[in-house]
DNA sequence: GGCTAAAAGTTGTTGATGCAATTAAAAGAT
DNA sequence: ATCTTTTAATTGCATCAACAACTTTTAGCC
């Protein structure tokens, strides 16, 4: 599409990601609301670990669309909070395999409930079909840029 | 809409803002490509100043959807780079009025060209009508959360 | 006018990001 | 078997964000 067809507000909003910022803030606020002291970014790492424990930091970087240093530090903070542990790779010793602690498992349901609450709040007044179409468009944009 | 109707990927993508992250990175990369050493966040401040010089930091915070400390530091960095200056408010001395330097004005066209380039790259293969609908949806979401 | 409350900015702390450079271990090449 | 190249992770540096606490100046109120 042609840029000249965009309004100023759309132009600005598109490039700065105001909506994503708002969603991220609300997510973190909803965690805090029930006494969960984790950040939205930490949640994004845990999200994949709840599904597939023992994966490497490299793999987490790929899944969460972050670079290796970011993951390294996110993992360090999560380790400090005793939500997961690094285990030195048995076969390949360059690699760390990441495992959740009991506490890391325990908070899953509460976290996911707040994540769903956040989506419900965000999606108020939005119909499913519009959402489908918007998601499809965002997928195209993502593939254009990644 | 109901959360249970979302796919896993959509759910994750929505809450983490992968697309916005990708857009922000590309924008910054496109600035760097032509030798402009400004961040995407700095651009978002300049964007409003190119339109309305002399506004306060408070006003910039409102416009860019950031808090006052964030704006304070963004302004400090932009001042270090000699792109703008703080002028102590003539009427109300609590306030700073922000003015662009000659250099701040000079980079406008180059910055906006790269911003438009970024949108073109992102929007490849997207038709205007789909974009309109997606923007309308994001506007609803933003108003739900702001 | 003088006291209190509100508003505009700043600073400190902690967590996150991007990029570049580095370390350690594995894989490939000859 | 040794040397070189890749790969996984970490560290350093600069910037940005959220939250809380603080300073300075203005506004409100009696």
Automatic annotation (TrEMBL), chains A, B:
One of its GO terms (molecular function) is DNA binding. The keyword Transcription regulation applies. It comes from Sphingobacterium humi. Keywords: DNA-binding, Transcription, Transcription regulation. It comes from the Bacteria. GO terms for biological process: response to stress. Residues 9-143 form the HTH marR-type domain. SUPFAM superfamilies: Winged helix' DNA-binding domain. PROSITE patterns: HTH_MARR_2. This is MarR family transcriptional regulator.
